[in-house]
Amino acid sequence: MSRSSEGRLIVISNRVSAPKGSTSGAQGGLAVALAAALRENGGIWFGWSGEVTEQYTGQIDFQRNQGVTTAVVDLEEQDVEEYYEGYANRTLWPLFHYRIDLAEYERDFAGGYQRTNERFAKTVRPLIEPDDLIWIQDYHMFPLGAELRKLGCQNRIGFFLHIPWPPRRLLATLPGAKALVEAMFDYDLLGFHTQEWLESFCDFAIHEMGATIEGDVARVGDRCVRLLADPIGIDAKEFAQASAGVQARLSYRRMRDSADGRDMIVGVDRLDYSKGLEERFSGYERFLIEHPEERKEVFLLQIAPPSRVSVETYRRIRNSLEGLAGRINGEYADVDWVPIRYVNQGYSRDVLAGIYRAAKIGLVTPLRDGMNLVAKEYVAAQNPEDPGVLILSRFAGAAEQMKDALLINPYSAEEISDAIQQALRMPKEERIARWQALMDGVQKEDVTWWATRFLDSLRQARPRIEEPA
Ligand SMILES: O=P(O)(O)OC[C@H]1O[C@H](O[C@H]2O[C@H](CO)[C@@H](O)[C@H](O)[C@H]2O)[C@H](O)[C@@H](O)[C@@H]1O
Ligand SMILES: O=c1ccn([C@@H]2O[C@H](COP(=O)(O)OP(=O)(O)O)[C@@H](O)[C@H]2O)c(=O)[nH]1
């Protein structure tokens, strides 16, 4: 990453993980990526501590860990309910994943979201120095840039969206959609994982707000913002190393022993309705029905740690998935074989690396996903001489880069079933050729490439000039 002499990097995101070494805990890929960028540039990572306090004080807890300074604040119960669980995860998350049937439009959520973003802005503002580069992450914080501007912040501010941008007609159902997009013109740079999400943003801006697009700049009246499609990657080198480490070797051996000669198919996802887990199980069941001769030759290991458990839709998906796994196992299992091993526990990425490597197939079938880092980790963990096959949803952001996977429509049980059969029968030469092409991409377009492209582009933005009072 090209280090700038210009100033520090201030990263702001809802979740802040103290980096304890990228593969030592069950931290997501985003946390790893941001920690790497901060180590490189120096600076501060600000956000919510994940803790609840009786009354918001704005008191910051600073910590320094492995070259990264984190600065976190506690939120009030009401903030958590309205901002995180409410507007972020009951309104925006379903809407941006094309599930308006699940999206809840409540004034209290919108109000709490705005209030919490104002609180974040006031709290972080005194930490910002004139030369700092500010990088705000994700849908929890759309209005934060505008709030910082109101507090006189003239720094270059970039925003990166980690989830899809929905089609215009869907976004138009959100009360206050225009104001939300309007606020995005206070940023200097907007980053999306894919060209598709970027074009959907432009479509809304053009047709609902009268914007014009000139090259990579969107303009509404006298306000403009630069746009960048910048797919996030993983730390491929480190992940490949981790998959040769002790933890990974142990988990690889454990899985091979317990597989007892059968082929393992693996899925690893937060327990989230966007990940298409029910459709995945149904596709796998279709495979068992269409290929009875394969029944005892394979099994599906689905790792699905619970996520956002205080939100009702997440409790529902957990119940329905348990029911579905139980029914499929009840119907097809024998005394010496169960078709699905369904695990609600999270594992460290070292352990996951060994599990990925032991799996003949990586089954990644989200109905919509901003990127999906698991798809990239699965590829990075494979044995180059005998790699497994990645089956990937066309509707994951990762599909724009990973064309050598077996790309499927996750809504079609038949396509999932056919792809499983094709992967199991795939000759070794084809597996190696596909894997090599995928691995080249995962290595080249890694997490450093992602952060560097974004930050270089942000640095090129013209600094804003203080308006005369
Ligand atoms: O913080 P949580 O509410 O527990 O959720 C975990 C993260 O989920 C989302 O991840 C997204 O970012 C990934 C990295 O860019 C991407 O690969 C994936 O497709 C997205 O769903 C969310 O956007 C993060 O903010 C959350 O921390
Ligand atoms: O038990 C688990 C399950 C997942 N992950 C990590 O969580 C991240 C999930 O990222 P992805 O982009 O696939 O989906 P998200 O959960 O962010 O929507 C990946 O780095 C996984 O390795 C983990 O560390 N332990």
What can you tell me about this protein's structure?
Its EC number is 2.4.1.15. Pathway: Glycan biosynthesis; trehalose biosynthesis. α10 runs parallel beside α11. This protein folds into two domains: 237 residues, Glycogen Phosphorylase B (Rossmann fold); 209 residues, 3-Layer(aba) Sandwich (Rossmann fold), CATH 3.40.50. With 469 residues, it is α/β, with parallel strands linked by helices. About 1% of the residues have low confidence. The longest helix is centred in the C-terminal third of the chain and has 21 residues. It has a ten-stranded mixed β-sheet, sandwiched between helices. A six-stranded parallel β-sheet has the order 13-12-11-14-15-16, sandwiched between helices. The protein contains 16 helices and 16 strands. The structure holds the ligand O=P(O)(O)OC[C@H]1O[C@H](O[C@H]2O[C@H](CO)[C@@H](O)[C@H](O)[C@H]2O)[C@H](O)[C@@H](O)[C@@H]1O and uridine-5'-diphosphate. Uridine-5'-diphosphate (UDP) binds next to α12 and α13.
